[in-house]
Amino acid sequence: MQKDSMIEIRWHGRGGQGAVTSAELTALAAIHEGKFAQAFPSFGPERRGAPVLAFNRINQTGHIRVRAAVNEPDIVIVLDPGLLYITDVTSGLKREGTLVINTPKAINDIKPEFGGPWRLAVVNATAIAREALGVPIVNTTMLGALVRATDIFALESLTEPVKERFGARAGSNLDACRKAYEEVIIAEPVAAAAKRTGITQTEVLPGWKEILPGCPVIEPGNASQYRTGDWRSQHPVYDYSKCNKCGLCYIFCPEGCVEPKDDGYFTANLYYCKGCGICSAECPKDAITMVEETQ
Q1: Residue (of 227, 121, 133) closest to 176 by Cα position
Q2: Cα torsion angle, 43, 45, 48, 52, sign
Q3: pLDDT at residue 2 in the model
Q4: Half-sphere exposure in the Cβ direction for 114 (13 Å, CA)
Q5: φ and ψ at 150, to 5 degrees?
């Protein structure tokens, strides 16, 4: 624990990945050990695939009075590697804190961009979750990486909270948690780290004065201004040697981002695709594979 005994954690995830559940299980595990803890999300207009935040505070000496969002965390956990390039995940991270990232990249590839005066831990939580759970939901997997990187509580303290939360599925979730605990790679702080040079993508949209010139009604189709493709953690790849041009991917896509090509085949517009995987699930020829995003 830190000298002041208070540990603050910020979780970066996407809607549907379980960041809020991760924070809740973290608090319950700490409470199991007799500590004081809180967990809460940052609510907004989120939907499945959109970036979300959740927070923890853990104190071993007394009640926690503050309820504000965590802006200067001791620990940051990133559930989705795509978020590394659309938001500043290290914002406010304390010197000698800990940054835990889910990524398929090796730590030597991540360190030049995200290393700093904090401990850096990386694990391919998505691959572990697919193997253990059958789905790329990494919330419990990242708990194992968190424990190994920080020793914030004992790994065994997660057992009862996970069993209570997941019931019959608790065993596979605990397996994923333990595997991440074993496989996480940790790099110690860089004494004189250079300022991070990674590019954070941003959108510049017109202000209200430009789009509302005295009238509350704007032109139809304005949703195309928003780059919703930034929300996904995986994207579809077509194998046209298997495709029979049935068009089910086009019919079932809930976002309307699957488009017909001139040759009768289909493709996904990755500017808007949120990576839900429905096109792959509905394809009768297994011609669509969901591939993990790496950046």
Answers
A1: 133
A2: negative
A3: 44
A4: 34
A5: -125, -20
Model's pTM, two decimal places? 0.71
Element (DSSP H or E) covering residue 251: helix 248-252
Q: Alpha-carbon distance 4 to 64, whole Å? A: 12
Average pLDDT, the chain: 85
88 with 114: CB under 8 angstroms? no
Output the pLDDT for position 270. Answer: 87
How far, in Å, CA of 127 to CA of 98, rounded?
Answer: 22
Residue 168 pLDDT more than 50? yes
Domains of the chain (ranges, CATH numbers): 6-187 (3.40.920.10), 225-292 (3.30.70.20)
Helix (H) or strand (E) holding 56: strand 51-59
Angle 217-219-220 (CA atoms, 0-180°, nearest 5)?
110
Q: What CA–CA distance (Å, rounded) separates 190 from 107?
A: 13
What is the rounded average pLDDT of the residues 174-182?
Answer: 96
Q: Please, are residues 119 and 199 in contact by the beta-carbon 8 Å criterion? A: no
